[in-house]
Structure formats: structure tokens, C-alpha cells
Amino acid sequence: MKHDNRPNNNWLLAAGLGATALAATLWGNRRGAYDLSGRVVLITGGSRGLGLVLARQAVAEGARVAICARDAAELARARQDLLLAGATEADVLALARDITNEADVRSMVTEVETRLGPVDVLVNNAGIITAGPLDNMDLRDFEDSMATHFWAPLHAMQAVLPSMRRRGAGRIVNISSLGGKVALPHMAPYSASKFALVGLSEGFRAELRQHGITVTTVCPGLLRTGSPGHALVKGQHKKEFAWFTIADSLPGLTMSAEQAARQIWNACRRGDGEIILSLPAKFLAAFHGLLPGLTTDILSWMNRALPATGESAAANARRTGFESESTLTRSPLTALTRKAAKENNEVK
To answer: How confident is the model at residue 256 (pLDDT cuts 50, 70, 90)?
Structure first.
């Protein structure tokens, strides 16, 4: 009698993927040789969350740092944070700009070059998250995600490239997402735009290496940056925000912003083409790479456990996480995210 070994084979495949992901994490923790000391670093979305943590670590290494965001008050707090972290007044620049506006991006880069010097490292970090069922999304949600995750990085890269080409050197770091590798349910605009950023980033790397310019694509999984309150939710707002913020707080599945920033800077120093952050994210990306159809089917089953489509007209309205709080999102289940929010200038 023949035995069906398929379940065992699946376990072996899963174990192999897990071991590979663990090895990749250990390998990715090594530090590269590129020195940030004295470099001019421009970080979009640098007023809070991951962007602010990246700026802190760059300042600690002696970089001259420019951060940009739309909110002037947030930027002022972030600048003070960096000064307290050891930066000098002359080495930190905070610029209020709308990075979805090409003219704003070009004027920003010009001001950075005038006041700090040519940009050595560009980090395209600014992001927008809209969570909710597909039926509650509209065209604007996709357009805004593409404007922030595709067009803004493109404009920023085009603005810094002339100087980098002349010098024959430069580093560009594009912060995409695991959602740019695997399409996640209830995040269609986010995933679609992050997929676009991955393609843009990889295309630029392929053509710019010959000019001494290195492009690194970063695909984080769930990070504890403290950002869920700024996310936009649609559908059943309180339920949607609850699953989103609880998932963002789970130890084991999430990575701290500090650890993520260290690995991002290491990847930049090494000149890596791509880095996927967190062991669960590496596993899911690898599994999707081998079995994309099965991965999508599994995610479709997971989708059934998420909040149903909102039926009222109000369900199609955007609300921030701050406007969608509930007993669950204020419970110990979200303690890690709320702690990160206080530490990383995410508290409204």
C-alpha cells in the first residue's frame, strides 16, 4: 500500500523556508562598511515613526540630517528630538513640504543642497495606510496611495540624481512593505502602490549601479512604530481599526522600530538590493514566491475573518485611527503600539 507523503512534504517545505528566513535574518544583521559620518541624509516622512527613528540613528553616527513632512508642529517636535539626541543646530534641517507635489520636492532638495550640501543618502520613507474592505474603497484611495508611494519617491529620486551622477556616488533607500510582495486583504490600495514602488526601486537599481549609485528596496513586515492612530480606516471603522492595531502590537509577529532602523541602515551600508524585515515577513514572502496561488487562497480564507463590508453610506468615509478607538484598542493588547507612539512622536 502506498502512503501519501504530501503532509510530511509540506511540513518539510515549511521548516526549510523557516530555516532559510532565520539564516537570512542573521546574515542581514551584519554591518556594512559605508560610513554615515559627515554624510547628508534626506528622510521623507521623518517627523515621526520609522522615519524619526532612522533620523535618530543617522544623527548618532554623525550624519547631517534633513527631515520633511507636511505637519510643521510635528516637524518642530522631531527637530527638538534630534537635537536632544546629540545633533547640532547646523546639522539638522526640518522642512514642511508636500512630497506628493513635484515642485515641493524639487524645492526641498534644492534647499537641502544649499544649507547642508549635496544629498548622499535619500530615504523615501513617507507613507499612507488605508485599511478596509475593497467594496468600501474608492478611486481616491488608490490615487492617494500611488501619489505617496510611487510618484513621491520617483520625484525625490529624480531630484537628487543629477548631483549623485556628477559625483559618481549615492545611496537611495526606498521603504516599501511586505504588502509590496504579498497582496494583503483589506489593504488593496496600500499593497498595489507598494508593489509599484518595488518595481520602480528595482528598475532604478538595475540602471544606476553603473553610475556608482546604489538603490536598496526595504520590505518590512509589521513594525511597532506607533503609527496606527494615523492610519485611515473605512468600512466598520472601530472593528477595522481594532484588528489593524492589535496585529501591529503582537510580540513575535512584529519588530520594533529601532531594530528595523538598524537593519535598514546596515542594508544601506552594505548596498543590498533588497531586505525583508522580520522573520514572519521573510517566511510569508518566500512561501508566496514558491506558491503564489496557494498563498492568495490562504489569505482569502483569512479575509473571511476580517470585518465585513460596511453597508451604510458612512462606511465609505475615511476616519483616522484616532477617531476609531474602542475598548479593545485601549486595552493591554495594544500596549506595545501605544508605548511606541509616545516614543516616536506619533501621539496626536
So the answer is: very high
